[in-house]
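Operator note (shift B, R.M.): manual run for Protein-S-isoprenylcysteine methyltransferase requested after the automated queue skipped it. Running by hand, logging everything below so the morning shift can see what happened. Input copied straight from the record, untouched. If output looks odd, do not overwrite the archive copy; leave it for review.
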Amino acid sequence: MHIARALILAITVPLAIYIHSLFPKKHDRPEDFKELLTDGPYRYVRHPFYSAFIFMSFGIALFFSSIPGLFCYSLMLPLWNKLAELEEKELLEYWGEKYEDFMKTRGGSSRS
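Run finished. Output pasted below as returned.
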């Protein structure tokens, strides 16, 4: 079990760092991006950074065998989902049909 916990962290931490490296230095708004990210992990899911962070949080709670950590993790899930929904609304407004098409071909959290 300890190996599985460490493996989750060993995969998700570098993945989150890699995904974040794809972003421009300033990335608060959709207009900060020159183009819609569709390569790398974005080929598979709409929110790979959120997904990596969710799994990383779970891995940390498991790694330290923390019941309070697992409880906090379960409380964070709906918050991450809500954040993804808000971001998707913003992305739809900015990218329009391009993002709608992207949503149809990628797994995601709010509008699969």
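Quick read of the result: The chain has one domain: 2-26+35-105. The mean pLDDT is 88.
Leaving this for review. - R.M.
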